[in-house]
Design a protein that fits this description.
The protein is about 15% helix and about 35% strand. The protein is an alpha+beta fold.
Length: about 190
Amino acid sequence: MAYLDPTGKNVSAVADAVTGVSDQLSGAAGLTSFPAAAAPANGISLAEVMRAVYNLVVPVVATGTIAITDASQTESTPFAILTIAPAAGAPLADVEVWIDLAKATTGFGAVETSITVQLAVARKVDGTNWRREAYQEAALSGTNAALRMARINVGAVGVTEQARIEAVFSADVTSNLSLPYAAAYRGMAAPTLS
């Protein structure tokens, strides 16, 4: 009787097939091609589920820059500066966003002095309507933003919702702003950050 080992090679004994499985799981070569993450289900391998667990344990940090133009900013009304949208079927956990307020030349602290900013999380809890949380801290002036960053806890973002960071300025900004950010999260797939 012939058996197939994990590589698809015919072997003549069950022991040889088991040895092949053991080599795949604990041998130096390991799995030759580790599959992408997948939620547990029929037809899903343990390796796919292990990748999903790994992705939910080890945080990922994505970086980018938020561009706020003087024309797009709505003074005294909250507006979205960063939207976090999970990939299909891939909820996010432990999302945190860090925003650099003091970038040289074009950061909030470099451009503004007396104008203040407040930041808050908003989410589509029902999948349709944006609902804003309380602001993260008291209004921060440009002068006081020198050498500062804002840390915003977003938390979990389910697959049927989105989250975003909203900003409100006390007046019209005097120039275009660039705010570097880092977004840390745990999840089976990368979200869209825009």
